[in-house]
Amino acid sequence: MRIAFFGLGNMGAPMALNLLRAGHQMVIFNRTAEKAAPLIEAGATLARTPVDAVENCDVAITMLANDSAVRDTILANTSGQAAVIDRLPRGAVHMCTSTISVALSRELTEAHLRHGQNYVAATVLGRPEAAEQKKLWVMAAGPHDQIERCRPLMDAIGRGVSVMGEQPWQANLTKIASNFMLASVLETMGEAFALVRKSGMDPHAFLDVVNSLFASPVYANYGRIIADRQFKPAGFRLKLGLKDIGLAIEAGQEVSVPLPLASLVRDHYLTAIARGRENEDWAAVAEVAAENADLVNRVG
Amino acid sequence: MRIAFFGLGNMGAPMALNLLRAGHQMVIFNRTAEKAAPLIEAGATLARTPVDAVENCDVAITMLANDSAVRDTILANTSGQAAVIDRLPRGAVHMCTSTISVALSRELTEAHLRHGQNYVAATVLGRPEAAEQKKLWVMAAGPHDQIERCRPLMDAIGRGVSVMGEQPWQANLTKIASNFMLASVLETMGEAFALVRKSGMDPHAFLDVVNSLFASPVYANYGRIIADRQFKPAGFRLKLGLKDIGLAIEAGQEVSVPLPLASLVRDHYLTAIARGRENEDWAAVAEVAAENADLVNRVG
Amino acid sequence: MRIAFFGLGNMGAPMALNLLRAGHQMVIFNRTAEKAAPLIEAGATLARTPVDAVENCDVAITMLANDSAVRDTILANTSGQAAVIDRLPRGAVHMCTSTISVALSRELTEAHLRHGQNYVAATVLGRPEAAEQKKLWVMAAGPHDQIERCRPLMDAIGRGVSVMGEQPWQANLTKIASNFMLASVLETMGEAFALVRKSGMDPHAFLDVVNSLFASPVYANYGRIIADRQFKPAGFRLKLGLKDIGLAIEAGQEVSVPLPLASLVRDHYLTAIARGRENEDWAAVAEVAAENADLVNRVG
Amino acid sequence: MRIAFFGLGNMGAPMALNLLRAGHQMVIFNRTAEKAAPLIEAGATLARTPVDAVENCDVAITMLANDSAVRDTILANTSGQAAVIDRLPRGAVHMCTSTISVALSRELTEAHLRHGQNYVAATVLGRPEAAEQKKLWVMAAGPHDQIERCRPLMDAIGRGVSVMGEQPWQANLTKIASNFMLASVLETMGEAFALVRKSGMDPHAFLDVVNSLFASPVYANYGRIIADRQFKPAGFRLKLGLKDIGLAIEAGQEVSVPLPLASLVRDHYLTAIARGRENEDWAAVAEVAAENADLVNRVG
């Protein structure tokens, strides 16, 4: 398929590469040109503007940082210039893989419909290494035929697909709820390791038990990061973690569902950010629990 | 070895049976005689009193409900009568598998030392089915030689052993921290499923994604219970969950470590108990999250 | 002065009346005409559109429900039509008494500056009865000369003025922080009264002690509402309380200040709304605490 | 009346002095003799042991730090020696002014009854200055005739008395709930002032508004301490604040009432203690909110 791809960050770049390897044609646009180089080398074409990128494409894929970036790229019509949505061909599909709000997903659904286009949400679970290894898990939602049309693309970037329903926002809510669950694990570990460490025990011995208990790669991976207190480089930046917890709280407010654990985690992310950790891995929220126990300058 | 076994509840009974099957001799004592029947059939002898049970034994094993039960059985010296600790032979070992407080574990360590006896904490992870299938995970702590002496017993009840250190309380703290982590999973799922359900999505479809994400038997097991809203019969009763969260908070207070997530979970257990759920599975804390979203009478 | 007044709700109407009584000229605009009747009787003139209302005025006063209403009335320029800000005379002042966000207050400051107009925030503390009795407390912020220019208006509606600084947002933040403090009192009372009631004590006897302790009209007023469980009619609606707690959390996020108590209160307001209490007095958050203790159907 | 007085701390000493000034006879006992000097000078007699102190007294008054001190003084019967309760004359009354648990108050009620003695709880609100100025507020509970018997003593130490019921624990619960409400004010102020300060505003200007809003001596007093960040010397030590919040949580657990705000405050007190603030005024919990916003080293 002819793909227009937006968003060559540490998730988007390997996803785009896997799509190229699967034999698809690709036009890319990125604000910082240097990130485009490896993809051009792999066969992609560089567009001069976002609008140019979607001319003649079958599918536009977005892997952008947040609501504002997706809105600016797809919907914004500033200074009288055309937006991507104005040039995306009728009948083409926008497959949005970004973690965006339920509200924006609904807005995109309607906007694309009005333009005679299709819209599918295909959110992904996994960190950059998983993206490189084609091991993402895809949560897709949208009209059945469009899901099937996009399935080869999903297969090219991941190890499996869960279809969440016919309404695109269902994939977004699933992603938001999943990230909330991950953030809860980080908070839980932060508190548990603070207790164990301040009591004078070896955190790595405790981690072995945690792994026996959960037998989960999520716990193994984040447990190691937290036991080692190794929060750089970030697999997923803490400020994006705050954004995602905010999306969960916002989704909860929309349907009057309190999420007190999300509130607690959010407040700890704010402290982490106040202390300059916005670009550390989001697992660094564990340091807030350690600091609350005055463990900052202790060893172990 | 000659074992005196105390506590034939839904964890203790299968553990005792596995010890008998491994060829050990056993004297049992239990307040409710009928629970003793299957073990007597399997070769155990019934003692008339706790004190009689430990005469001539090599090891006394306790799998009792809480601090108060362990204290009453082992240490209490009421009405001038002898306590178990007064009759346990010098050189014998007390292997305590109950989930008790760090403080009581320290008190037992000293008390047994004064009596020329040995003390080992060997706490276990796993629900009744795991106990039956000899699949518990054992967290042991105590003097090295006593751990080795008790290892055949641990092997007889579990699938593996983590040695946490030379001080018995280390095994208790590990168990307490582990149960706190499990309780956090239940709270997290409660909130996430409330969000997903009230938004109009199928909780079982969401559970599939959760399983893809965590790939953990803990999430699979509790996720099913919560998605099905099937909280009876209880694998682990909610009022025991409250007790264990209390132990975590108490252990935190001892070393000045706040555990705000434990506080949140504790408050939700109180609401669950206020509403009559004390004998449901502790996963029923998820219903509090659902009720807070006014999901009580809704389907899905 | 010639005043254009927007927002004749249960706060705005008595404020406007007091301004008329102080001898000012007034043009009013309100979407629902019947609310204008008592003011017209008192001498106000009804404008056909918001834009008409500000022609020739010295000061435009807004007492609207939220950010969106202020934005729509003052800034919105829909369908190519002029907005209020386009017609407010150069040199005139917009005195905004609504509880709006710090962010919108900053935006208004800049927008009015660009239009050669002045902007003052003059937020108010007090419930509808206080507005009627000219007993509001005014928190003002803005350029010194404009504060002085508006002071007669502030004196006409309240019992005193605190000048918070030269930047209008300072008055908004003060109001937001004050409402957060009030909301905290309601949560505190909700929990304390739940404890006292479920223990079997008389809540009114406890209220007497609370009044001896705090000797504050705020505690006396809300304490009575909560002890009587009389949440209708609403002095301040619960859904506006949720909005204001949201403004506090938003203001905190802007400067990376976690407000865990605001988060807790917000979650309880969501539950209250999920259960249909959005139009009760915001003190009804106390019922959530009572329900969490399963006190719903009990007397006392 | 002939009074035996126990507990000459910064509350007990001025209370005892006011009782002497009211013309009562007094025998005192205190572990640290130097604290007794001013009272002996004012006419009190020093007893050699607690047991000696109650010989021939009409009323024993306790103003001790916590459950453990009250238990040790009144009930403990160690090494075969008599306890105070064994020597307090039949028909005498124990008037307990300490902040103790509901559970211990119930235990004392029964123990004194068994000994043919009377028991009244007369807890007090107010800081040391209020005790000196005879301005405490007394919350009394117990049998009607005993309350009346003790009323002259209550009048001698305070400005007023609220009678909470016929069961002594009702006075204890009232005190516990009142201290929870005060602690909530401190937490609320801590968060509100952190928000205001980090936004760049003057905390004293904000305090003026708070005083206009609440018009309460409690807010004026603690607001000044927090705005000045002057937490020494302590009027009420933070570690006692933690104890009292613990009593509230314990009282809540007894009747299955969650107190999430108490939980939040408790966790912040733990952090304050972890950071070495246990002997500062309990208002220093506000510093935790400031530190969570990384305001530690900032001025203002």
Can you offer a commentary on this structure?
Four copies of one chain form a homotetramer. By secondary structure, chain A is of the alpha/beta class. The first copy, chain A, folds into two domains: 165 residues, NAD(P)-binding Rossmann-like Domain (Rossmann fold, 3-Layer(aba) Sandwich); 119 residues, N-(1-d-carboxylethyl)-l-norvaline Dehydrogenase, domain 2, CATH 1.10.1040. Helix content of chain A is 53%, strand content 14%. The first copy, chain A, has 14 helices and eight strands. Chain A has an eight-stranded mixed beta sheet, with helices on both faces. In chain A, α6 packs antiparallel against α9. The relative contact order of chain A is 0.10. The model of chain A has no long low-confidence stretch (mean pLDDT 95). The interface between A and B is large, with 58 and 58 residues.
